[in-house]
Amino acid sequence: MFKDQKEESFDPATLLNQSIVEVIGRIIFNSDWDITDPDIDKLICLNELGLKSYKDFQAIMLLDFFSLAKYFPFKSHKKIFGIFHATLEIIRLKLRERELTFDPQASAGDLMDALLHSQREAFEENKEEKASIFSEDHLINTLAVGKRGTTSFASSSRRGHLTVCGYRVPRTLLCIQTSKRCILILSAGRARSFFNPYRHIDKEGNLITNQGNFYPFGAGRRVCPGETLAKMEMYMFLSWMLHKFTFLPEEGQEPPQIKHLRAITQYPAPFKIRAIKIN
């Protein structure tokens, strides 16, 4: 993909996003994942559009606290939720297509098969509570999130309450995650936006396994379900890229400044680089 740029300046974001979406798409849809399929192509476009709509995400963060907001003509609210609902409808279509060819005797070939197996087992056991957890809407939302195991999904859906430092938190109580604020306080004075290998390697070159307050994927029961896959992807993508190419700024330009944009996640502002193939 980088070789096709012929050492010209380009924004790596789109190429990297397409590659990562390909990996995740194969895990979720397997044989049904075909980028020439108009529905799959639309799904990828919706994903990219969602990532680029950071200003709209900022605008709806406050509106999302008020359920009546959806009845007012807020453009940002309608745009973001339009992307969300369009994504779910494509996944709903793919799920129903898979149900027509699903073989309950065959082993699961992807996440969609695994969820359909779990749904079938729930109905066969005739357990109303478990069957409701594996309803079509729950399956579609799980596929939209991706990579969440059926067991952890079922248990988290049934959990009636949580405890924080021994204090009971009822399921009806609105909790706002503040772990990021804790990390910002604990890491005050350090350049958090810059990659520094010595945060992970000691003076002798040994890997530091216990890194204290460094946990980008969260911790405990609410840890990111995609942590293992994300780590593998980062290692394989970065090692391949650095073995094959030398990355330079645009001709006559300084290296890009590190600037962040915020949407659902925090990510780098657009920039351009050149990829020079290593002989």
Automatic annotation (TrEMBL):
Heme binds at residue 224. GO terms for biological process: hormone biosynthetic process; progesterone metabolic process. Its cofactor is heme. The keyword Phosphoprotein does not apply. Keywords: Heme, Iron, Metal-binding, Monooxygenase, Oxidoreductase. Transmembrane segments: none annotated. Pfam families: p450. One of its GO terms (molecular function) is steroid 17-alpha-monooxygenase activity. Belongs to the cytochrome P450 family. This is Cytochrome P450. It comes from Desmophyllum pertusum. The lineage of its organism: Eukaryota, Metazoa, Cnidaria, Anthozoa, Hexacorallia.
